[in-house]
């Protein structure tokens, strides 16, 4: 026996946000499946209805076979022209055809389809929401409408009724879709300043922009221009004053000034907001979010004066007249994934007195193995390579004349081809506190012996340069230059001879 199959699909709806008994344009709306109910007619076999991501699958036992109907109506926005609910609990929504709607009918026994096999699939379904009855193959879709229905419990859904009809049985599957009308609230941001291409640097920065808004889903609002640490949500870093927004629409020029510091995130986001004055929460964010990246900023992190050892607090005493290295640590914030290379420095010692300024002669010697260093987000003072290391001229380490105040001026030398800022932290004045030598005597005499160990003596052809030795000791120890006198006292044996 050949079984006759057909499928009927009818859609109804009611938007939850709108009251019955009025007429108003509501613009686009979105449908999303919520649940499916089944009504089984006489002679219908077992039925099932299973939700899928975009619709549902319905089955009905039909004798020895099973009829399966697969309906897909993806989450989609439908352009709805108007809503008319003057008839009480019912109304009418006019929609344009939705190409995303599809339905496929199949049977476990293909021979049961007979001449109605065109239903699986039916290309006409691609035209959108249609009414399907027992029509002849190729018959056109009819224009569909949503009939507004309100359930006794107050719930409201867009309803799709799908019928599976055979010669002897019918099952109706009612798919309930949630219906959300699109909001008409909007907020645009234009003419923002400063230009994000220039990035931002530490200091006071004024942000501004022109906002244009409209809203209808809430009754009162404030509008503001704000700076956040994330493109959506995030922590508030700065804000303009809250301006009372005029309903239904308006526009304002807004601005605010914020202090940018080293602890400010490397990327900040400017956006306008509409704030619901009843809930005091952000209801609408601007259509544009402007991202600002921190501009690279290279600076002198700190300096250290070193003779033997030193700590970051400069607690080790610097003895005057001794070889001294000045370590300069270079820091970079912003664009730290692209650090400045080959950073060098120019040093000069300037002394001020009642007679004016005097620039001392001498050129510091760069001890680094390369010409310049790489700027770092957090320089490590335990690594020699992470600082500029200058051996200062001896004259710079001598005691300062009475009435003089001296400092060493450091100016970083950066690659010319790359911008950074601000510039005021590229240079600085640093003071080296010198202590007088512990010994001031000219009578420190040291006797020098050549030691023969186990009968092996130093090569007598190699003389001892006592003057060079005295100079080395005077550089290492806290004594005046010329205070150490070395004299050669000959040779001694080690171990000492027996009885010596």
Give the arrangement of secondary structure elements.
Elements: E1 6-12, E2 23-24, E3 28-40, E4 47-51, E5 55-62, E6 65-72, E7 76-84, E8 92-95, E9 102-107, E10 145-147, E11 158-165, E12 170-181, E13 186-193, E14 203-214, E15 221-228, E16 236-239, E17 243-244, E18 249-260, E19 267-276, E20 281-285, E21 290-293, E22 297-306, E23 318-319, E24 325-333, E25 344-353, E26 356-359, E27 365-366, E28 388-391, E29 405-413, E30 427-430, E31 434-435, E32 444-453, H1 466-476, E33 484-494
Low-confidence stretches: 1-27, 79-99, 112-148
How confident is the prediction overall: mean pLDDT? 76
Structural class: mainly beta
Q: How is the biggest beta sheet arranged?
A: 8 strands, antiparallel
Q: Which outline best applies?
A: elongated
Distance between the termini: 134 Å
Give the fraction of residues assigned to helices.
under 10%
Number of β-strand runs? 33
Cα-based radius of gyration, to the nearest Å:
44 Å
Number of helices: 1
Strand content: over 45%
Task: Give an overview of the whole structure.
Helices cover 2% and strands 45% of the residues. It is an all-beta fold. Strands 1, 2, 3, 7, 8, 10, 11 and 12 form an 8-stranded antiparallel β-sheet that branches. Strands 15, 16, 17, 19, 20 and 21 form a 6-stranded antiparallel β-sheet that branches. Helix 1 (466-476) links the parallel strand 32 (444-453) and strand 33.
């Amino acid at each position: 026996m050949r079984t006759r199959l057909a499928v009927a699909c009818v859609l109804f709806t009611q938007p939850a946000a709108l009251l019955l008994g009025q007429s108003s344009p509501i613009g686009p709306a979105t449908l999303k499946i919520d649940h499916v109910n089944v009504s089984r007619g006489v002679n219908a076999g077992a039925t099932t209805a299973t939700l899928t991501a975009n619709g549902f699958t319905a089955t009905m036992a039909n004798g020895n076979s099973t009829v399966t109907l697969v309906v897909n109506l993806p989450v989609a926005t439908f352009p709805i022209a108007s809503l008319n609910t003057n008839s009480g609990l019912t109304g009418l929504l006019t929609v344009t055809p939705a190409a995303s709607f599809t339905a496929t009918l199949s049977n476990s026994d293909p021979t049961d389809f007979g001449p109605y096999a065109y239903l699986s699939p039916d290309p006409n379904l691609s035209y959108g929401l249609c009414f399907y009855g027992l029509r002849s193959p190729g018959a056109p879709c009819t224009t569909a409408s949503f009939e507004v229905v309100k359930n006794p419990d107050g719930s409201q859904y867009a309803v799709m009724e799908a019928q599976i009809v055979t010669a002897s049985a019918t099952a109706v599957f009612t798919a309930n879709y949630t219906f959300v009308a699109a909001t008409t609230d909007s907020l645009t941001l234009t003419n923002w300043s400063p230009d994000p291409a220039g990035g931002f640097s530490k200091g006071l920065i004024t942000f501004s922009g022109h906002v244009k808004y409209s809203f209808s889903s809430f009754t009162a609002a404030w509008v503001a221009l704000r700076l956040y640490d994330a493109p959506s949500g995030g922590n508030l870093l700065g804000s303009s004053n809250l301006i009372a927004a005029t309903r239904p629409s308006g526009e304002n020029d807004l601005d605010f000034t914020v202090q940018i510091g080293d602890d400010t995130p490397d990327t900040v986001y400017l956006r306008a907001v509409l704030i619901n004055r009843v809930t005091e929460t952000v209801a609408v964010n601007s259509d544009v979010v402007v991202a600002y990246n921190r501009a690279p900023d290279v600076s002198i992190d700190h300096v250290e004066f070193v003779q033997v050892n030193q700590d970051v607090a400069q607690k080790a005493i610097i003895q005057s007249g001794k070889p001294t290295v000045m370590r300069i640590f270079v820091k970079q914030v912003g664009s730290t994934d692209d650090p400045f290379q080959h950073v060098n420095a120019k040093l000069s010692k300037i002394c001020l007195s009642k007679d004016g300024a005097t620039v001392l002669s001498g050129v510091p010697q760069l001890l680094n193995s390369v010409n310049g260093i790489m700027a770092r987000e957090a320089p490590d003072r335990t690594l020699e390579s992470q600082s500029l290391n200058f051996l200062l001229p001896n004259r710079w380490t001598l005691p300062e004349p009475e009435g003089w105040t001296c400092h060493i001026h450091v100016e970083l030398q950066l690659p010319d081809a790359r911008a950074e800022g601000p510039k005021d932290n590229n240079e600085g004045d640093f003071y080296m506190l010198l202590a007088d030598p512990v010994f001031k005597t000219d009578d420190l005499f040291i006797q020098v012996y050549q030691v023969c160990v186990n009968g092996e003596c130093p090569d007598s052809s190699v003389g001892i340069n006592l003057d060079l030795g005295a100079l080395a000791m005077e550089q290492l120890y806290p004594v005046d230059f010329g205070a150490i006198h070395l004299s050669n006292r000959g040779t001694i044996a080690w171990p000492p001879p027996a009885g010596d």
